Structure formats: C-alpha cells, structure tokens
Amino acid sequence: MTDATRTASAALPPVVVELIARTARRVASDGSPPPDIAEAVTRQLTSADDRVSRFITAAKAAGSEPETVTAAELAGRVSDLLAKAGAADALLELPDFLPQSTAIRQALQGASVRMVDDRSDESLFAVRAAVTGVAAAIAETGSIVIESGGGVSRSASLVPPLHVAIVLESQLLPDLLDYFAAGSRSPPTCATLITGPSKTADIEGILVTGVHGPGRVVILVVRV
After folding, report:
1. pLDDT tens readout for residues 27-54
2. What is the pTM of this model?
3. Segments forming the whole domain that contains residue 81
4. Would the CA dihedral through 106, 108, 112, 114 be positive or negative?
5. Would you put residue 131 in left (φ > 0), alpha (ψ -120 to 50) or beta?
6. What is the CATH number of the domain that holds 63?
7. Beta bridge partners of 189
8. Is residue 30 part of a domain?
9. What's the rounded Cα separation, in Å, for the pair 70 and 177?
10. Is 9 helix (H, G, I), strand (E, B) or coil?
11. Residue 29 resides in a domain
C-alpha cells in the first residue's frame, strides 16, 4: 500500500475500507471461471414449449395487445386497427422479407390512410400510428426487438401513440440467450427491447401509461 493510499484510507470509514479490501481480494483471485449454472435455471422455456402461447401470455401481462392472425388476414387487420384507433395517417417501416408489405400498403390506401415517409421530429410527433416489423420476439418476456439501421429508424416504435408491430412466427425465440446467440452478423447501431406500452411511475408511484411513448402496442403474430 502506498503512502497516498494509506492517507486516503485513513479518511474513510472502516466499513468502506473493508469493502474496498474485499473487492480487491476478489479481483486478485486465481481467475477460476465461475461455476456452471444448470440450464434449468437459465432457461425457462424448452424447445417443446409453445412459443406463441407463451409469448401471448407474457405480452398481455406486460400491457401489450397481442393477437394471432394468418398471412391472409394481416393486411385487413392492420387497416382495421388503424380505423378503430382513428389514425388517419401512419408511418410504415415494413421489412423487405415481409411478403404482405404490398398488401398492407394497398389496404391502407383503400382505407384512405395517409402513409408517411417523412421521419423528421415534426412528422414523428404528429403522426398517429406506426406499423413496423421486428428483428425478433422473445417468448419468455413477451418482448419485441427493434433494430435500427437499414431503413429502420429508432423513433418509429417509440414516438407515435399507437405502435402496430408485425411478428412472424418464425421470429419467436425462447429467450434473450437465443437472441444474443444468433448474433453472428455485425451488431445493429441500436437494439430496443419493447415490453409493453410506455409506462412511468415517477410521480407518487402512480403508474401512468403512454407518457413517454406509445400508449398502445398491438402485436400481430403471423402464424404459418
């Protein structure tokens, strides 16, 4: 211990000095790897579990509005959701791999919904809804993952009051371990995990929904 360290330690309460010493001893340990943890502890879902039903249950518990649709029903359901929400305009960020993208655009056009391409702050805060795809969905927690980049903005799923997210059944993963294990490609500039609508309880511990982002998150799981 150097003189400077002794001087600094003398000015600290003994309990703090002991805490620092214990931490230093742990850091200077023999470097043995941590013990193995049983997979039953880290994995709450097995390959035999029904990911769709588990996702629906968890997403509902988090405050999202999940439902299943067929590929043929998807475009009409998106149009119906926006009509019932009174959304006259919507920002669309539909992935290229979604076969129903054209049908969704045609359905919204037929319903006189204005499709917004402008992603300026003014436009994002004025638009009433966003319809997006997802990078993945997590069955264990009912979360959806939005990865920015490649034409996908960070704000589309975070600003408009209604977020309609489209999840293909093949995108459902058991848990976050599987999501990160699949990261063989370069990581995105931003990955946002969304578990339910925007919520805050900053004021007096009272839970309020939709203050800092979408008040509604509707998730359409497209079954094969």
Report:
1. 666 666 777 777 766 777 776 668 999 9
2. 0.80
3. 47-222
4. negative
5. beta
6. 3.40.50.10420
7. none
8. no
9. 28
10. helix
11. no
